[in-house]
Design brief:
The protein is α/β, with parallel strands linked by helices and about 170 residues long. It has helices spanning about 15-25, 60-75, 105-110, 115-135, 145-160, 165-170; strands at about 5-10, 30-35, 45, 50, 80-85, 95-100, 135-140.
Amino acid sequence: MTRLFVVTGAPGSGKSTVVPELVRLSPGNLVVMDMDELLDDNGRLLGISIASPTAAPIWPAYNALWLRITELIRRSGIPVLLLSPLLPTELPEGRWLHLDCPDAVRRKRLAARGWIEAQIQDALADAAEIRKHVPRSVRGDVPPERSAKGILDWIRGERFGKTLNLWGRIRG
């Protein structure tokens, strides 16, 4: 089956911001989806706030739903790029890349969204955990087009068996 590419990142890393650039730069070559796209404007799935700790029992089903959606698309031969806040252990398939930004940038972005300090601290902890599990990263604190180009370069490298050192290339 065609490959699944997953770009993970904690809240505030720039996942949703980079989606339009990824779509623009890869027309017809790649299906680009953000896990948040199934949620309503209030962050709910079927009336349940997915970010609420009380929703934890449905998270595995939500992850399995996304994996099934990607399988349905990939069977047509088109690769899928899924942007997600997950760890590889939560969605055990695909090639993984991390969209990351400095904690100060993340803090500023989340505060601008109206997040309270406890939520920001949780996002910072999530970012630290993701860094441990997905060390290969692209910067999310640069213009979205630049982040998108880095992600697409990584996908091209993965598809053609080339390992790229992206962090140094994109930092410059």
